[in-house]
Design goal:
The structure is a single chain. The chain is of the alpha+beta class. The protein has five helices and eight strands. The chain has helices at 19-25, 28-46, 71-96, 127-136, 151-156, and strands spanning 7-17, 51-56, 59-65, 103-118, 121-125, 146-150, 167-171, 175-179. Strands 1, 2, 3, 4, 5, 6, 7 and 8 form an eight-stranded mixed β-sheet that branches. The radius of gyration is 17 Å and the shape is globular. The relative contact order is 0.19. Pfam families: DUF2652. This is DUF2652 domain-containing protein.
């Protein structure tokens, strides 16, 4: 059986670090309001570059069919999302007079996957999707705010990593981690 719905593309998963503790320590209505604001901010900063497959709790599964992924384009979107997320956290802390101890991590992966429909829902399927989710549970990251670019993404993109001034670690088994905290500013 041949599936003509298989495409190569990028998987992007922004995920909140500190989410579980936040949920357990925040009133239901307040927590829902904060998470809705933060997720909406990420979606707005995407500016339609990626499609949304699903939103689950504190993570968004974005994808883009693309046989020539651009490292620079994806990196720019990640910086926009991260900066907007941090601004929104500050706004919400001030608005609600409370501590919000969450940060943002990103998984960027590349490979083949398909999409199928059940009722009104479109679901992504394939090894690439599972691998991206597994990368969320990595033991590589030393800091909570980072982007993990898989080897598959780096090999298939126009890797302009030297253009971004971040603390980077190459992981033979995983790819490359960029930490956001070590950068004073980036104009995007």
């Amino acid at each position: 059986m041949k599936n003509i719905n298989i495409h190569e593309g990028i998987i992007l998963i922004p995920d909140f670090s500190g989410f579980t503790e936040f949920v357990f320590n925040t009133k239901l209505y307040t927590g829902e309001y904060i998470v809705r604001q933060l997720l909406s901010t990420l979606i707005d900063m995407n500016e339609g570059y990626f499609e949304i497959s699903e939103i689950e709790g504190d993570a968004i599964l974005f994808y883009r069919y693309d046989d020539r992924p651009s490292y620079q384009s994806v990196s720019t979107i990640l910086w926009r999302m991260r900066n907007a997320f941090n601004r929104k956290i500050k706004e919400l802390r001030k608005e609600l007079s409370m501590s919000i101890d969450m940060s943002l991590k990103f998984i960027v992966h590349y490979g083949k996957f398909s999409q199928y429909t059940i009722g009104n829902f479109k679901k992504l399927y394939g090894k690439t999707i599972v691998e991206a989710h597994q990368m969320l549970k990595n033991k590589f990251a030393e800091q909570p705010s980072y982007a993990l670019f898989s080897n598959s993404f780096l090999e298939n993109s126009g890797n302009g990593e030297s253009e971004i001034n971040t603390k980077k670690y190459h992981l033979p088994e995983g790819g490359m981690i960029h930490y956001f905290e070590n950068v004073n500013s980036l104009s995007v």
